[in-house]
Write a structure and sequence with these properties.
Mean pLDDT: 94
Shape: globular
Helix content: over 70%
Number of helices: 9
Pfam family, one: PaREP1
Low-confidence stretches: none
Oligomer: single chain
Protein name: PaREP1 domain containing protein
Strand content: under 5%
InterPro entries: PaREP1 (IPR010268)
Largest sheet: none
Structural class: mainly alpha
């Protein structure tokens, strides 16, 4: 399998600087590799691990989108401080506690519905640490099956969003293969 042969290599490569256009390509590849690993973990019955990988995939996608839309986001920013924060912290780090707000900012520049999907990714992040919780105190998922459904739907959404921006980024053969592999796994 292509994806898992290179996954360790891809995830261990140094990231290009966020100011470099290659950063977008690297983060998209990371998102697809993480998504593929999430699906592999699901096949092995490792749902909490899969939830973590799905979250990481979504976070990497957000990093790519933030960099892709950086100029538009800076133009929409309310202050110089916010513009500096976008460049110095948001794009390179995508802080978990700010993912909701960053998704809302991306919605303002055209990425419709992104914050709702980010909510799902954040719920999966909680599930990774707390597992199923019938009482709903620590996790929004009362069963493994609920989490599995959301992992799969989040990855489908990620694939659709990557497909939607292919023409706006430097698209490589490596990205095409990774995308094809995730799509293949989703239909398997």
């Amino acid at each position: 399998m292509y994806l898992f042969v290179v996954s360790g290599e891809v995830l261990e490569r140094p990231l290009p600087k966020p100011t470099d256009k290659g950063y977008i390509t690297a983060r998209l590849l990371e998102a697809l590799v993480e998504a593929g690993l999430a699906l592999e973990f699901l096949r092995r019955g490792l749902v909490r691990n899969a939830a973590g990988k799905a979250f990481q995939a979504w976070r990497a996608l957000l990093a790519a989108l933030l960099r892709l839309e950086l100029e538009r986001l800076k133009a929409a920013a309310k202050s110089e401080e916010e513009r500096r924060w976008l460049v110095s912290r948001a794009v390179p780090r995508v802080p978990t506690g700010r993912m909701k707000g960053l998704s809302q900012m991306l919605e303002e520049v055209g990425h419709v519905g992104l914050s709702l999907w980010t909510d799902r990714a954040l719920h999966l992040h909680d599930y990774q640490y707390h597992g199923p919780d019938p009482a709903g105190e620590y996790s929004k998922y009362s069963s493994r099956e609920e989490a599995v459904r959301d992992i799969i739907t989040l990855i489908r959404e990620l694939v659709g969003r990557v497909d939607a921006i292919k023409t706006r980024v430097k698209w490589t053969e490596e990205l095409e293969k990774a995308l094809g592999e995730v799509k293949r796994q989703l239909t398997a």
